[in-house]
Design goal:
alpha+beta, seven-stranded antiparallel sheet, 43 strands
């Protein structure tokens, strides 16, 4: 029983000091005056009666009622029901009271009070308060209302009696426990003696909260989402503040939130109504649920971490800094759905066409219970199976229970969840475990729901109807609990009459008589004491646990589908290990280690290993031990530190069981090898483990005792004995039930037994922890926190996890004496860790203090003892032969290459290229591989073998030149890379611009210092201080340091120069400007020393005199100090000069007379590199231009790169010029019209005139311009040798116009309207003519059309403007430079502005291309990712642009116009375009020699900045790598693909140059210009200086030498057509990604260093040509796409034949001939055969490619595409039949070779053989010499006069042709060896041709005769 009310209090208004209407509350009377012993009087009630403050009011207010909640120091809640009414206060009374209080105050203050004119009457509040521990709001309202009614209506009942009765009324706490009201159950009728009657319904179960309608109201006020948000916030311990203007609503809302949280109880600050005086409570740091009147809303604005719910406005405001974790997903959605079904039943049927007429909406009270039912279900879901994770660590004297959070979360799969872990960490859940953990207690709805309804809830999930049904059932129970007897709720309580509070003369509330009330209370108390004590019937029982979590989770499909197969593999592997079948185990191990990612496999591993432990020990041999340890490590590395699945827990007993004998008496256990996992450093893990073990031991303790000790007792009670397998909860429940019945001795004995069980476990765990925490090598100062395995583990939260953070961190971070007492440090650390653990668990599980002290003494001894055993083990384990790591394979080095760092053991990890890792193409996983990384002066080399033992013994090599390194970065291992690779190793990623990627993980044995040293060396080698330190220079000079100090004297610095300059001004050339990036020559005036102008240089020959010109006294720099004569001689030898002579662009002679009629001359003005540093010494300029003019012109161009001639078209005599872009200065003058008024003779003006003169001189040098005064420059007369006569020039002209427009960015609309000039107009809008006219003019001029219509006003009317003409010179310039250029129709040049990309765009594009071709990480969809990133890189778009410009220039040159390419600085894209144009136009450059010349001339001599673009030195490091040259080679590769027969060199040659242009192996591609090469003495190496074997300095020497030995660079399909101009397609769809970017050869690394390529492949039997007889058995080879070098493993036919020839010559003792000679002979014989053939019928034997000399371009570009392979030779299709060639003849201007009349005649027929088959059938044919007989399908074709044969009847491709014109006779034949058996001899016949005899055999004699007759018939017809 409990008192209904503890105290009755009357609180009145007491005025404040200032008399302004504000005051405070004052308790007038309280009853009883003495505090109850069990319930002291709560302080501060007066504050809560008027939460907004005590104030006087001007008019009366109706009485109010609300309930405030106070919480006392013991967390007991007191409900204060406040009933407030207002009493009149006279002003005079108020003032007199104030005076009494303030007589000592000054008078002026009193005057202030009286000053305002105020009404005579004010009203003060007075409150009647009931304080109770029970929450019966309605009863309190009725009772206080009754007191008020008696007072206000003046009823006869005495107030003292009513209040006395109220204070003495007792009611049952829970229903049905009162004996005298047994019939009414939980209802109790009370009366206060005023003729009233109330029925109080006490709840059936007091553990369930009572909510009335508050929950339903809260949802109505805030809505579903907001309430759910508040609910989650309360559970995750956030601060929540309610605002409302109604106090009662605040109380209800707070009550509702608490009711929703059931079964968890809120344990933080809970104040439903907070008084104004206590508002500072809101800034408390702890969580709270508080209600505040909305009058104080402004004060709550600055609270940054409080969630504010405004009940009146229906909003919830969450501050930005707060993140509320919501329910995990399916639950959140289901809860929302269920709530909307309850709150808005109409929603479901809102869309129905015929909604039901009535919707049964529940009453508010019922709805309230339904909502609570939804939340009950939610908690049942969330906490499902929680009882299976309870650890009972003590049962007596009372249960001690712990909850295993990690296991609970792990089984739910919610470890990563945001919400549940926070709830489990919270205080409310801790209270839940304490309250609901005990196994023997009363049970309520929630327990039943968790235990019995779990299956039902899962089954209902899909069906809304069933869910709603369940909710209603639960709601019914909750309602019944609150209102057990709804029938008897008949209250009879008097209420005051209407409007009674407005009565004017209401007497104040009387003072109550304390004596009377106290007497009534005392009477009742005495009566209660004499009454017999009420005994509550015990309703305790065993709490049911419900189904275990596992069974529920499996239904959720969390178990992997294919796990059964995996588990099988795990089991097999383990049984193989223990049966010592090591090979089988090794085979399965990778699969097992991969399977360890899944939880079932990890658990299976622990179970299987358990089976092999006998008597807690399993001794293994070394290999078995190694396998078991690896599996354990792999298993643990996928576990988190929390060990949510208990895998580490299951392994813990195993790591102390498996061991191996190291030597007699010394055993190594598995724990010493699995210490590196963070789980061992997690205190919570050890606690959970400890509690789990204690629970098992306690269970065992009672199980063994059950039968003996308790059997009698149980029999006496008539209960069956407990089952042996009872769960610990059942045992505990039974023990709790029996406890009261036991004798004290028995109780003490049990307590003592349990305590010693816990104590012994604590000792056991101290040992276990020391095993796993002390490292094997305790001598090293390796505190456990630096786990030694690398960053991931040592940094994160190694030993100091959050749970241990405090004192230990300080204690060992501050200790610095590591050196003195290293071992003790580790020991101290471990001792402290174990002590902390022991303190915590022993205190919690009630171990006695003596035992605890004993433990603290033991622990250091345990640790010390263990350290001693470990030392012995460590010593012995060192003696063990190490696990056999593959021995390091040393890479072979080049001559002169030296090792910088010896092999560091590493693993090569797979990158995104999938073939190597056994990706989509199948094939073995070669990567990851294990080996070593070597750093040499030239390369970085990885060499090793695949980690996977089943791949085989292949050697994996990946290497690249150090100079090509573009990025070196440390990477963090994302996931464990592979089971073979130990985790946590340092990892590096090295990326090279030769498209290699080394992603390496260093072995544990490699110290981190070594890694850093490696990186430093690498950096130093990659970016040397000076170019002279690169490998190409240092090679072979090992003894000397790279930069000798002597060099200083040789190359004097500026200081030395100033001294010596006077002495030998003519000779000395100082070393200056070398460090500057750009060289700007000083102005000309200051160069010669004097002001006089330069003399005209009229000499025609090159001066070879000893005297120098003044111009040579410029500060150029030469270190070799040559005489001028020598310089000149050497300049003449340069590549450019040889080429100029070849092109007839100027000859060199020593005679003083040179024909003046040559248009161009070789100019020597730059021979000392004075004008332009980046140009060669000799340049081609127009004959009429003098040297001093050149000096002036050069200033208009960037880098002084003025226009010079590069190449001349031998047919049209058009020239190709190149220059840098224009400086702003010269642009305006260059294109000014000559008749414009000149602003005055300024210098700029004269320069631009010179420029103009220069361009005019170029135009005048073109012969046909001179001949016809520009008249022949039209396109009408244009014919081209490579176009057939039918293809007239009219067809051609629009093509050029469209080409031009594509290049300039317009679209090709085809011939049509006038506006065809694309974007040209925009550039010229500022010109004299309007842009429209220009558009018309240029567009139609390019399209070769006349202007339509008259020109608009303002345009010149000269005839020349209208003349249809093509400019003599086109200047291709950058759009941005040519802005504002004025065109001049009278000039003979035309500007083509185009948009080009800059070098930095090439750089970024290349970076992306590398990422696409060699991604760092494997992606999910490699092919998609590759294509996407390829497109993003825009590399092919840039190639397309370059080719497009080049083709345009080729077209212009071919039509007779000269072209000046003037883009950027003239050394990047200019070089690309100019080189490509020459390559396309001139077949000479498509030979090996010519290509070399082209590169030397355009790239090296004309100063492409190789060093700068390749970032070859430290200075260029910031610039990054910009592969302009590679882009050019890629363009050449694209052209090569389209015209495979036009190039003498193979694709391999291009790859070779790409590789070595960045490798720095040769000096060829170093430095930025000839000038720099000269300065370093590279340009002309002294002859005869090489003594002994000398490494090659130049790549060209190397190529020549190699090419003599083997045909690596030769293209067998080379069959050039004289003077053919190539016009490749440049559309993106025609471009292919170069396989140089994607392919790799893991067997030997890049194949471009020929000496390093190991041994030749063993000869393979030749399977013979395809058309030979029966197949001979061949040895089958597997060629792996990314491993083998295909062209060497499986060379093409010609390479193989040449090789065999060489072998045969060797065998015969002859000196092997050169392959080239053999090939040339073969080619020559082929040509003669081709001529003898007289056209059509070449036999199959002669159908080699050489005969196809006359095929047209179409045939060549589309026909013979040969698969180019790694080393550059080709796999050849030997059957290029003459039909195909003759078919394409019409498109070719001249038919190939000499053809007979018949073949010419018939070549007009389409080669569709189907129409021309006169007779066909099968014949056996004998192959050529030594070949077998084969059946073939023969077709006799009378029309074409030939006999063709095919492989079979269905074959469409002809295998060979016998031209009947060559047949001499047909004779009967004889069977030869290998002929078909069972055939009549007479079925054989021979056909003799001029070349050979063909042997045939028919199936029978008849058929043979028919064939002979038919062939004879054809011959006679002909």
């Amino acid at each position: 029983m409990a008192r209904l009310a503890d105290y009755f209090v009357v609180v009145a208004f007491s005025p404040g000091k200032r008399g302004n209407g504000d005051g405070q509350g004052q308790i007038l009377q309280r009853f009883p005056e003495k505090d109850w012993e069990d319930n002291p009087f709560p302080q501060g009630i007066e504050l809560f009666c008027q939460p907004s403050g005590w104030q006087l009011f001007r008019e009366r207010k109706p009485p109010t009622f609300f309930i405030a909640v106070l919480t006392d120091i013991n967390s007991e809640r007191h409900y204060c029901a406040c009933f407030t009414f207002w009493e009149a206060v006279e002003r005079s009374q108020l003032q007199s009271r104030l005076r009494k209080e303030e007589e000592e105050e000054e008078e002026d203050e009193e005057e202030e009070v009286a000053a305002p004119v105020q009404p005579a009457q004010l009203f003060a509040p007075k409150s009647l308060v009931l304080v109770s521990r029970l929450d019966h709001a309605d009863v309190f309202r009725n009772c206080l209302g009754l007191v008020y009614t008696i007072y206000v209506d003046g009823l006869s009942t005495s107030l003292e009696t009513v209040i006395g009765n109220l204070l003495t009324c007792t009611i049952p706490i829970t229903g049905g426990s009162q004996p005298d009201t047994e019939d009414e159950g939980g209802a109790r009728t009370i009366s206060l003696g005023a003729g009233d009657r109330q029925v109080i319904q006490t709840p059936i179960n007091d553990s369930l909260p009572i909510s009335n309608c508050s929950v339903a109201l809260l949802f109505r006020q805030l809505g579903i989402t907001n309430v759910l948000c508040l609910f989650c916030a309360a559970l995750t311990e956030h601060k929540i503040l309610f605002l409302s203007s109604s106090y009662q609503r605040l109380t209800d809302a707070c009550r509702a939130l608490l009711a929703l949280m059931f079964p968890l109880k809120y344990s933080f600050t809970y104040v439903p109504i907070l008084p104004a005086q206590l508002l500072e409570v809101l800034s408390t740091p702890t969580p709270f649920i508080i209600g505040v009147s909305s009058d104080f809303q402004s004060e709550t604005q600055e609270l940054l971490d409080v969630i504010i719910a405004d009940l009146d406005g229906g909003t919830v405001t969450v501050p930005e800094c707060i993140h509320i974790s919501l329910l995990p997903e399916p639950l959140l959605h289901r809860t929302r759905e269920a709530l909307s079904m309850v709150l808005d039943p109409g929603l479901e049927i809102a869309d129905l066409a015929f909604p039901p007429s009535t919707i049964s909406a529940s009453s508010l009270k019922m709805q309230d219970k339904e909502i609570r039912a939804v939340f009950l279900r939610l908690f049942a879901h969330l906490l499902q199976g929680y009882r299976w994770c309870l650890h009972i660590i003590r049962i007596h004297p009372e249960p001690v229970i712990r909850f295993h959070k990690a296991a609970f979360l792990g089984q739910r799969g919610l470890v990563e969840d945001d919400f549940l872990p926070k709830v489990l960490e919270g205080m409310a859940f801790a209270g839940f475990v304490t309250e609901r953990g005990p196994p023997y207690r009363e049970v309520d709805v929630f327990d039943e729901l968790v235990a019995n309804e779990a299956q039902r809830m899962q089954a209902d999930e899909g069906s809304k109807v069933r869910v709603l049904q369940h909710i209603k059932e639960l709601a019914e129970q909750l309602y019944k609990n609150e209102n057990p007897y709804p029938a008897v709720t008949m209250h009879k309580v008097q209420r005051p009459t209407e409007g009674s509070h407005l009565r004017l003369h209401q007497r104040p509330f009387p003072r109550l008589d304390e004596g009377t009330i106290q007497w009534i209370v005392d009477q009742a108390t005495a009566k209660l004491q004499t009454a017999p004590p009420v005994v509550r019937a015990e309703r305790k029982c065993l709490v049911p646990s419900g189904p275990p979590l596992g069974t529920l989770m499996e239904r959720n499909g969390l178990v992997l589908a294919n796990s059964a197969r995996r588990l099988e593999v795990v089991r097999n592997c383990i049984s193989y290990v223990f049966e010592s079948k090591m090979l089988e185990a090794k085979r399965l191990l990778p699969a097992v280690l991969r399977a360890m990612k899944s939880r079932p496999a990890r658990q299976c591993l622990t179970q299987e290993l358990n089976l092999h432990v006998q008597q807690n020990r399993a001794v293994l041999d070394h290999l078995q031990f190694d396998f078991v340890v690896r599996m354990m490590n792999c298993c643990l590395q996928d576990c988190s530190t929390a060990d949510e699945h208990g895998v580490a827990a299951a392994l813990l007993p195993l790591v102390t069981a498996f061991c191996r004998k190291l030597s007699p008496g010394i055993t190594q256990f598995a724990y010493s090898c699995v210490q590196e996992h963070l789980v061992w450093t997690n205190l919570q893990f050890w606690e959970a483990m400890f509690y789990g073990d204690v629970q098992n031991h306690i269970r065992a303790l009672y199980l063994e005792g059950t039968e003996e000790n308790y059997l009698e007792q149980q029999a006496g009670e008539g209960e069956p004995p407990e089952q042996e397998e009872g769960s610990i909860l059942e045992i505990a429940a039974l023990q709790c039930r029996l406890w009261p019945t036991m004798s004290p001795e028995k109780q003490r004995e049990l307590i003592q037994k349990e305590e010693s069980t816990v104590f012994s476990q604590a000792i056991h765990y101290a040992n276990r922890m020391s095993y796993l925490l002390l490292p094997l090598d305790t001598s090293k100062n390796r505190l456990p926190r630096s786990s030694g395995l690398g960053d991931a583990e040592s940094v994160s939260n190694s030993f100091i996890t959050n749970s241990i953070a405090g004192s230990v961190a300080d204690s060992y971070d501050t200790e610095s004496g590591f050196e003195d007492a290293e071992t003790s440090d580790v020991a101290n650390y471990v001792v402290r860790f174990i002590n902390r653990f022991v303190d915590k668990v022993c205190t919690e599980s009630g171990v006695t203090n003596e035992h605890l002290k004993g433990l603290h003494v033991m622990i250091p001894d345990i640790v010390q003892m263990h350290i001693e055993t470990l030392d012995a083990v460590h010593r012995e384990s060192k003696r063990l032969p190490p696990i056999q790591k593959p021995k390091l394979l040393r890479p072979s080095l080049l001559m002169g290459e030296e090792s910088v760092m010896d092999g560091l053991r590493v693993f090569l990890i797979p990158d995104g290229r999938e073939e190597g890792a056994g990706g989509s193409g199948g094939g073995p996983p070669l990567l990851p591989a294990e080996g070593a990384i070597f750093l040499t002066t030239y390369r970085i080399v990885f060499k090793g073998t695949p980690v996977d033992p089943l791949v085989g013994e292949q050697v994996v090599v990946r290497s690249f030149p150090v100079a090509s390194l573009t990025k070196e970065e440390k990477i963090t291992a994302q996931a464990p890379v592979d089971q073979f690779i130990p985790e946590g190793c340092a990892q590096l990623q090295l990326r090279s611009c030769t498209f290699q990627l080394l992603r390496i993980a260093f072995d544990e044995e490699v110290a981190s210092e070594s890694v850093e040293v490696f990186r430093k060396h690498l950096q130093k080698l990659r970016y040397p201080q000076h170019i002279a330190d690169t490998f190409a220079f240092t090679v072979g000079q090992a003894s000397k340091p790279a930069l000798q100090p002597k060099a200083k004297e040789k190359n004097p610095s500026l200081r030395t120069i100033s001294k010596n300059l006077v002495k030998n001004a003519k000779r000395t050339i100082g070393r200056q400007y070398i460090t500057r990036k750009k060289y700007t020559p000083p102005p000309w005036e200051h160069r010669g020393g004097g002001q006089q102008p330069f003399p005209e240089d009229n000499e025609d020959e090159i001066s070879v005199s000893e005297e120098m010109d003044r111009s040579t006294l410029t500060p150029a720099t030469l270190t070799i100090r040559p005489s001028d004569k020598m310089t000149m001689g050497q300049l003449v030898e340069r590549a450019c000069c040889r080429d100029y002579q070849r092109l007839g662009l100027g000859t060199l002679s020593n005679s003083l007379t040179r024909s003046k009629n040559e248009p161009f001359r070789i100019c020597t003005v730059n021979r000392m590199y004075a004008i332009c540093r980046s140009y060669p010494g000799l340049l081609i300029v127009p004959q009429s231009i003098q040297d001093n003019t050149i000096q002036r012109i050069s200033r208009c161009y960037r880098q002084n790169r003025f226009p010079v001639v590069s190449w001349r078209n031998s047919r049209t005599k058009a020239v190709l010029l190149r220059s840098g872009g224009l400086h702003g200065k010269g642009v305006a003058g260059l294109f000014k019209s000559p008749n414009a008024p000149a602003p005055g003779p300024s210098q700029a003006d004269s320069t631009s005139l010179e420029q103009e003169k220069y361009l005019q001189a170029v135009i005048n040098s073109m012969p046909h311009y001179v001949d016809a005064g520009g008249g022949r420059n039209t396109l009408s007369g244009f014919t081209s040798a490579h176009m057939s006569s039918s293809d007239s020039s009219e067809k051609r002209q629009p093509k050029l116009g469209s080409l031009m427009k594509q290049v300039m960015g317009g679209k090709d609309e085809g011939p049509g309207p006038v506006s065809r000039a694309g974007k040209w107009g925009s550039i010229r809008a500022s010109g004299r003519t309007s842009s429209y006219a220009l558009n018309m003019e240029v567009g139609s001029r390019l399209a070769g059309k006349e202007l339509l219509g008259a020109p608009p006003n303002g345009s010149p009317s000269e005839a020349s403007f209208l003349r249809q003409h093509r400019a003599s010179l086109y200047i291709i310039g950058d759009k941005s430079q040519l802005r504002g250029v004025k065109p001049d129709p009278l000039q003979h040049w035309e500007v083509v502005p185009i948009e080009v990309f800059e070098a930095r765009q090439v750089k970024t594009s290349f970076k992306k291309l590398m990422k696409a071709c060699v991604p760092g990480n494997p992606s999910a969809e490699p092919s998609l990712a590759y294509l996407r990133s390829l497109e993003e890189s825009e590399w092919l778009t840039q190639i397309h642009k370059i080719l497009q410009i080049a083709v345009l220039v080729v077209e212009l040159l071919d039509t007779g116009s000269s072209v000046l390419v003037s883009l950027e600085d003239g050394w990047d894209i200019t070089t690309q375009v100019v080189s490509l144009v020459q390559l396309l136009s001139d077949p000479y450059y498509r030979t090996l020699e010519g290509f070399r010349l082209l590169v030397e001339k355009e790239w090296l001599s004309f100063g492409h900045r190789f060093s700068h673009r390749g970032a070859q030195t430290l200075a260029g490091q910031s610039g990054g790598f910009t592969p302009v040259f590679l882009q050019f080679l890629d363009c050449v590769h694209q052209i090569h693909l389209q015209f495979p027969m036009e190039f003498e060199f193979s694709q391999y040659y291009l790859k070779f140059l790409s590789y070595h242009s960045v490798s720095n192996r040769f000096r060829t591609f170093l430095l930025d210009s000839d000038y720099e090469r000269l300065e370093l003495g590279l340009l002309y190496e002294e002859k005869g200086e090489s003594k002994g074997p000398q490494p090659f300095r130049s790549v060209w020497e190397y190529v020549d030498r190699l090419n003599k030995k083997i045909p690596a660079f030769f293209n067998y399909m080379y069959a050039p057509e004289d003077s053919e101009v190539l016009r490749p397609y440049s559309n993106l769809s025609n471009l292919k990604v170069w396989d140089y970017y994607t392919q790799e050869t893991l067997s030997e690394g890049p194949s471009y260093d020929w000496e390093l390529v190991q041994g030749r492949p063993e000869p393979v039997e030749d399977p013979g040509p395809p058309d030979a007889g029966a197949p001979t058995p061949s040895r089958r080879r597997i060629v792996w796409p990314c491993y083998d070098n295909r062209s060497r493993v499986e060379p093409d036919a010609i390479s193989r034949l040449l090789e065999e020839l060489q072998n045969l010559e060797m065998e015969l003792g002859q000196i092997p001939g050169r392959w080239k000679d053999t090939w040339d002979k073969l080619k020559a014989s082929q040509r003669t055969e081709a001529h003898e053939d007289a056209g059509g019928g070449k036999g199959a034997s002669s159908a080699l490619l050489m005969a196809s000399g006359g095929l047209s371009h179409q045939r060549r570009s589309l026909g013979a595409y040969l698969q180019e392979s790694g080393v550059g030779s080709s796999a050849i299709n030997l059957s290029l039949d003459s039909d195909a060639s003759s078919a394409s003849a019409p498109s070719s201007g001249k038919p190939g070779g000499r053809r007979s009349n018949t073949s010419t005649l018939y070549s007009q027929f389409q080669p569709a053989e189907s129409e021309n088959r006169s007779y066909e059938g099968t014949l056996y044919k004998k192959g050529a010499f030594m070949k077998p007989w084969r059946p073939r399908w023969f077709v006799l074709d009378k029309t074409k006069h030939q006999l063709r044969y095919y492989d079979s009847r269905l074959d469409t491709e002809c295998k060979g042709v016998i031209d009947l014109a060559e047949v001499e006779s047909i004779t009967p034949g004889t069977p030869t060896m290998g002929a078909p058996k069972m055939v009549d001899e007479k079925a054989f016949f021979d056909v003799k041709t001029t070349k050979r005899v063909y042997n045939f055999c028919a199936q029978d004699v008849l058929l043979a005769q028919q064939w002979i007759d038919r062939i004879q018939g054809c011959l006679s017809d002909a």
